[in-house]
Amino acid sequence: MLAEANDPTGSSVRTVGIFPRPRYRAPTWSWASVDGMAANHRMLTTSRFIADVFEVIDCVVVPERPNAPLTGVRSAVLTVRGRLKPAYVQTDSLMLYESEEACQRQEYFGTCHLDAVEHEPYPNPRPVYCLEITSRISHGWAGNQQGITLVDNADSQGVFHRVGGFGTDSLHDNWFAEIEPRIVKIT
Questions:
Q1: Which of 178, 95, 173, 179 is nearest to 138 (CA)?
Q2: Does the predicted TM-score (pTM) go above 0.70?
Q3: Beta strands of 37-138 (E only): which ranges?
Q4: Which of 3, 24, 95, 168 has most Cβ atoms within 10 angstroms of its Cβ?
């Protein structure tokens, strides 16, 4: 869930469309779901801590063959409790905005790292959801919030797919402050 896909040459992906998901082989929160090389996400540093409201509740994995569970995955659902907030990503700049109007005014609050393509064509700006996972602590002050970028699962209401990661800028350290934690299912 906290990995990011890199292109086969090893450079970090900063555009949409590089890694379309192949036929289902792993849940979207797994590094194995996209074609490309996986690496630890940049948010995983010694100065980052799991947000105090983020919690893994359950993980259900259905193997392709029940008598040989290590041969492949048929489906999986990760259930977490965390702060989820809607946003918009400008897919050409990967800037995050709170609304389409904020996008038109170029009032962004953070950046997005999209490493998987879900459904094309998609609107620009594209509606997404941000799930807070970490906060940076620096000299006792709260820092940027980071997490994963999700989109609605077209097949199930209230269920999401992971499409990348995000980070707020230093002016928006409390972007999730008014959001109550909720149960989120990710396939």
A1: 173
A2: yes
A3: 37-40, 48-50, 55-63, 73-82, 84-90, 95-97, 110-114, 126-138
A4: 168
**Backbone angle region of 78, left / alpha / beta, with phi > 0 → left and psi within -120 to 50 → alpha:** beta
Burial class of residue 146 (count of CB atoms within 10 Å of its CB; 0-12, 13-18, 19+): buried
pLDDT in tens, 169-178: 766 667 888 8
Confidence of residue 49 (pLDDT cuts 50, 70, 90): low
Categorize the per-residue pLDDT at 163 as very low, low, confident or very high, splitting at 50, 70 and 90: confident
Residue 171 is given by DSSP the state: G
Q: How many residues does the chain have?
A: 187
Task: Using alpha carbons, select from 186, 183, 121 the residue that is nearest to residue 152.
Answer: 186
Long-range pairs for 21-24: beta carbons < 8 A, 24 or more residues apart = 21/116, 21/117, 21/118, 24/73, 24/75
